[in-house]
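Title: Prediction job returns without error message
Component: structure pipeline
Severity: low
Priority: P3
Assignee: unassigned

Description:
Job completed but the reporter wants confirmation the result is attached to the right record. Sequence as submitted:
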Amino acid sequence: MPIAITGTGLFTPPFTISNDELVRAFNAYVDAENARNADAIARGDVEALAKSSAEFILNASGIERRYAMDRAGILDPAILAPRIPERSNDDPSIQCEIAVAAARDALADARVAPETIDVVIVACSNLQRAYPAIAVEVQEALGTSGFAFDMNVACSSALFGIGAARDLVAAGTARRALVVSPEICTGHLNFRDRESHFIFGDACTAVVVEDLARADAPEAWEILGTRLATKYSNNIRNNAGFLNRAAPEHRDAPDKLFVQQGRKVFKEVSPMVADLVAAHLADLGVDPSALRRMWLHQANATMNRWIAKKVLGREATRDEAPAILDEYANTSSCGSIIAFHKHRADTVAGDVGVICAFGAGYSVGCAVVKKVRGR
């Protein structure tokens, strides 16, 4: 039974923050901290904080700006964090709100009604609460049928969600599935850390997965196969959780936000991703030279170039491996889906591509897709 992606949706937050703006706020914080600790710094007891720069950010990541659910708090040197008011339990949660916006976009793209969706999977790197599941809240808000559940495999979540959705449809458990990734990454980013304060932005994506024979969508991408892999590592970590209150002396420690050892991640994850994609293509009988496009995880421009070159055996063009990282920054599980959403209109029936994401865990998710309907 051919299973296909028939619609995608995107919610983009209302606020943007440029590198220059982010750097001004960060450097003001650095100046204040260094002045406060001036005596300790002079004695050698405390190391002075180093300033950041827009050039450093661009060279390190390829990021030029990002979207955010809140701008004022992030750019206030005294706060350096988003300020998103807690809502009443009777109101839709903020993740539900942005998930519904992206989902409606995807449903319209696939030309399907909410009640024809049998399963909603909310797949993202951070969930704002333990329960009830955000996915069940989204199910209620949209009016979909069947069941819903949350899943978290960090930046690979959307691809793991697509893999699960494909399997559920293939098994006959669901006719259609909706995978939604509401990522408010600025909420877990340490804006006081020079090495990572620029990495993330906010967004939400949605993907409709269904039996191709049932699809009425004008465009469809058959999922030729999915491949998932995990390998335990501490090199990307966030220790925020319900047990933090049981050890209050560490509750506000830096590891309760995003932390990573970037060089180790690059060295260990890049070959893991390239090898998985290459093996997946080989098992499907797809030669890398036949790939029209690679929609890769949008975490680091250098990393993507390395992976694409390893898979293709040569440097990839921007057309072959398009980037949205410069505009959106790293949106965790949304990145490769945003790239797919924005950079597939120029493809034709018969084109084959790879959607791939990777991140903490370590985790890697890959879907090889073929355009079977559309221009």
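Comment from assignee: result matches the submitted record. The CA atoms of residues 96 and 138 lie 5 Å apart.
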